[in-house]
Amino acid sequence: LKAEAPEEARAGLELFAADRRARREGAHAALAPELEAETFEATRKRIATAFERATEPRKKTDAEGEQGFAGMGREIILRSWEELRGRGADIYRPLKSKRLHKIRIAAKRLRYALELFSACFDGLKDLAHELAELQKALGSLHDCDEWIKECGEHLSRCDPHAEDSDGVEVREQRAAAFFLLEHFVRRRVEDYAEALAIWRRWEQEGFGERLAGSLEDTPSNSDAGAGEAAGDGGQARVSA
User: Fold this and answer.
1) Strands (DSSP E) found in 77-155
2) Looking at residue 67, what is its pLDDT?
3) What are the helix (H) ranges across the chain?
């Protein structure tokens, strides 16, 4: 943004950037111990154990019997869609940042489910792409909210008449904060408008109906292909 900023704000932007770099380096130093090899290995074992338990053959426990990978995928996808649809009304509340962020999280979960089970059902990749568009717009909006909050807090706690040792740095940072606040407020409006347009298009084109239609027909080789991808030769089964 430096090229777009007025001259008076450019030095302040460098100060903001330097502060961010220092914070990032501190966060990296704190994170490093958590990324050691033994930590990754322990996590890998937990995931492998959980996957083996989820895919091991089981006895039929009810009238529906067992279902394959595709059946499990159908249930996960529908449950994820219900979560997203249940939060849909909050898309019409542009000032509710936390609620909009929860819509983004729900969209992300559904998108990943569609991508995971795309080998089992036709049309899921296209639907996942549409979800990615909503996720991107709301993600950018969330970033704007974080910047707006930080710049607003900086301006509110900084005395515009105060001076530091040379009387320059305070003015430079305030000029940069004003510039950033104005920029991200405008950008947030654009991001929200994009997210709203996507949701409106889904209403008009029947996103839910298209999703349900994709889940109706399962390719004959879907379970086998998913099983092979899981490394069990197509024999993985999970109970209903």
Assistant:
1) none
2) 63
3) 7-31, 37-55, 69-86, 97-116, 124-157, 169-205, 207-216, 222-229
What is d(CA 222, CA 239) in angstroms, rounded to the nearest whole number? 17
- In degrees and rounded to multiples of 5, residue 197 shows phi and psi of -65, -40
Q: Using CA atoms, how far apart are residues 137 and 202, in angstroms rounded to an integer?
A: 15
- In 19-162, the DSSP E strands lie at 66-67
Query: 166-188 pLDDT, tens per residue?
Result: 556 788 889 999 999 999 999 99
Distances in whole angstroms, Cα of residue 203 to Cα of each of 36, 85, 102, 154? 47, 11, 19, 40
pLDDT for position 181: 96
Region 104-114: mean pLDDT is: 97
Tokens standing for 166?
């040379």
Tokens of 88: 């849909």
Average pLDDT score, the chain = 84
DSSP reduced 3-state for 238: strand
Structure tokens at 137: 């717009």
Separation between Cα atoms, residue 182 and residue 174, nearest integer Å: 12
- CA–CA separation, 132 vs 108, rounded Å? 7
Q: Coil, helix or strand for 67?
A: strand
d(CA 110, CA 132): 10
Residue 22 to residue 87: CA distance in whole angstroms: 37
pTM of the complete model beyond 0.70? yes
